[in-house]
Amino acid sequence: MLRDKRLGYDIRELTIGNVVARQAERFGDKHYLTFLPDRLQFTFAQLHSVTSSVANGLRSLGLSRGSNVAMLMENCPESLFALIAVGKIGGIALPINAGARGAQLRYFIDFFDAVAIIVEEHLLERVLEILPNLSKLNTVVVIPQGSVMPEIESGRLMGKILLSYRELESHKDAFTDAGARFSDLAMLAFTSGTTGPSKGNMHTQAKCLLNPISHLENWKATSDDIFYTALPAFHTNALHATLYPALAIGGSAVLSRRFSASNFWRELRETKATAVNLLGSMSNMLWAQKPDPEDRKHFLRICSAAPVPSFYVEFEERFGLKMISAYGLTDFGAPASLPLDSPIEKKRAVGKARTGWQIRIIDDDDFDMPTGQVGEIALRTDNLWEASLGYYKMPERTLEAYRNGWWHTGDRGYLDDDGYLWFVDRKKDAIRRRGENISAFEVEQIMATHDSVADVAVFPVQSEMSEEEVCAVVVFREGKQSTEAELIEHCRINMAYFMVPRYLRILPELPRTLTQKVEKYKLKEQADADPSLLWDREKAGIVIRRDSR
Q1: Residues 474 and 505: beta-carbon distance below 8 Å
Q2: Residue 395 burial by Cβ neighbours in a 10 Å radius (0-12, 13-18, 19+)
């Protein structure tokens, strides 16, 4: 059944421009955004005003409905304002990972048809290096680090228009409606490209707002909530679980420059944040910090973690909060969430299907798996416009994922008798060892319970017998140490014998993306290229048998 109205919004009126204008009228001088590094604050009225000016400036450059505008910037107010301004003119925003450079950056800009790019000054050199090879790009807008750009003047460079972002802001005339519709493409949200070239997931104007509204419904959020994020604004979690939810409900958003475990709780206390999202190993990194008498002094009402760590009971007790979880993917949507009143035995499930969503667990031939058995998670929704439209310029990949009327996620999990979804791992993270399927995720979760372990990444490596073996790369907590043999013993008594890693490596930190995802492929490439980097328990004489006690 179509839900025509969500939190008072008619879906057919869900455009970014409409929502910003409505909230500016309703909430006016209430603070919407706080940018922590510079202690800058912007009201709803200022948000509407500055994004209208930037939208007018974009129009003055010849950009209009359907224009593709790339963005290369770290967290800053402009990273949100530019996104909204592009939405107001009906353009398509392409927020690019700020770590991109060289051939990868060229791919993002060229393959995805960007005609303009908005870039922070300290990242401009990366664009200039590839500028001669960007035939479709005709405009470069630079966000200066200060109030002026002493080294760059507006004009032309390598045949491209070059100007300061401040010039866009100077177009103070009233903004006239660009005719953007709820069904217009508003953003390409890029995958991490771990299995091939990054894909651009097509998000409509309505989809950009319906996912945040789903979060608000599950959290029972109100306009009194303050949503905090230190995740990058080019990532959908920061947008869909913080910045846009605050906009849609009339709450407040806090944007930090980047995640820092040592500064996290201080920033939450300082801003009186009531809602936060933790991704990947962020929970592990916070847990690894030395206990502090101030740990429980915060205002959090909502702490959503994906995944909920295996030590969640201790985490909740130490920090004085309750964790919940959710399941979603950039490629399609946010189909499941853990209700706030879920019983404790369901705590590590990722949730139940949200209203209008269906979840199936299927085998490789798309047939249903029995309740409790692991298979691929497949999704479908009756909520019109809440799902992504597929992959930009990749129809074959879209059809491959969206076959038989269901979106195939590439994730493995199972449904229990009560309809709760339990995530197991990514299909590509499953390790096949001597006839057994091993979840890298499960091995990581168990190893993370060791008192000395701050972080861990598990992946397969090839052994001399040409089969997969389990390898774990471990980061120790500050002031803690352990031996490889002690780590193996912890594994032996806490997991099935066939899951116990054969190879270990100790590092001071794990390589990560700006969204805090561990770049396992780098660790695997290093291990494959130089096996001497790894400690081998078999060479150390430690044998794990089926009947080991």
Answers
A1: yes
A2: exposed
pLDDT tens-digit series, residues 343-370: 989 989 999 999 999 999 999 999 999 9
Asked whether the predicted pLDDT for residue 195 surpasses 50, the reply is: no
Report whether the peptide linkage leading into residue 307 is cis, meaning its omega lies within 30 degrees of zero.
Answer: yes
Assigned token pair, 308: 């909920």
DSSP one-letter code for 242? I
3 state DSSP class of 131: helix
Which domains, from first to last, does the chain contain? Answer: 41-203 (3.40.50.980), 354-432 (2.30.38.10), 434-536 (3.30.300.30)
Could you give phi then psi for residue 132, rounded to 5 degrees? -60, -20
Name the DSSP class of 367: P
Q: What is the pLDDT of residue 150?
A: 44
pLDDT in tens, 444-479: 988 998 999 999 999 999 876 556 899 999 999 988
Q: How far apart are CA 461 and CA 447, in angstroms?
A: 18
Give the tokens for residue 287: 């847990």
Which residue type is seen at 151?
Answer: E
Burial of 426 (0-12, 13-18, 19+ CB in 10 A): middle
For residue 243, give every residue at least 6 positions away whose Cβ sits within 8 Å of its Cβ, in sequence order, or none: 33, 80, 227, 229, 233, 253, 255
Strands 200-204 and 185-190: antiparallel
Nearest to 69 by CA among 44, 50, 86, 84: 86
**Measured between alpha carbons, how far is 159 from 137 in angstroms, rounded to an integer?**
10
